[in-house]
Design brief:
The protein has about 180 residues and is of the alpha+beta class. The protein has a domain of about 120 residues. The protein is about 50% helix and about 20% strand. The strands form 2 sheets. It has a 5-stranded antiparallel β-sheet. Helix 1 packs antiparallel against helix 3.
Length: about 180
């Protein structure tokens, strides 16, 4: 029974991250199938984007996903046709808006999971400020002069909360019968 409970807890901890990854890969595969069908069916030349990039820039500016797909300035492109002349690459590409939005959703999920999301950080600051208003902090003006003059005593590194009105103990102590 303990093994079952421990496996269930482990599964419930891993499910959100593994499930999100599986969902992302499934969506990505579906989008790639649709794009492939569209490219096989034929794409109008006016729908293609021509990118002219030098050989050095292909290694620095482009983030390659595989040999016929890359990301440039945050937008995913699928290469339909390419040509090389004098160390310059000519790519006729199709902008993959659906895959771009999928990657942006993934980036948002990762940012919110690691706390890098600006809206989430603002909400956390607001909650922290609200919680600080709930905690009562006594003002210095509220302390009487007697409490202000008594020295603070420490026992085991803890401050005493109670300060006596008469700071000097009675000598000798009273006897109780």
């Amino acid at each position: 029974m303990k093994k079952f409970i421990s496996l269930f807890l482990l599964f419930s901890l891993l499910l959100p991250s593994v499930g999100t990854f599986i969902w992302f890969k499934f969506q990505q595969k579906e989008i790639r199938k649709e794009v492939k069908k569209q490219l096989i069916a034929g794409v109008n030349e006016s729908e293609l984007t021509l990118l002219i990039i030098s050989k050095e820039e292909t290694q620095t500016l482009l983030t390659w996903k595989h040999e016929m797909e890359f990301s440039f300035e945050g937008i995913m492109y699928d290469i339909v046709k390419q040509k090389v002349e004098n160390n310059t690459y000519y790519f006729w590409c199709w902008k993959d808006h659906r895959e771009t939005s999928l990657y942006k959703k993934l980036d948002k999920l990762v940012a919110s999971a690691f706390g890098n999301d600006s809206t989430q950080q603002q909400k956390q600051i607001q909650i922290k400020l609200f919680n600080q208003t709930l905690i009562f902090k006594p003002s210095e003006a509220w302390k009487s002069a007697i409490f202000a003059l008594t020295p603070k005593r420490k026992i085991y590194y803890y401050n005493l909360i109670y300060n006596s009105l008469s700071p000097i103990p009675q000598v000798p102590p009273p006897l109780f019968v």
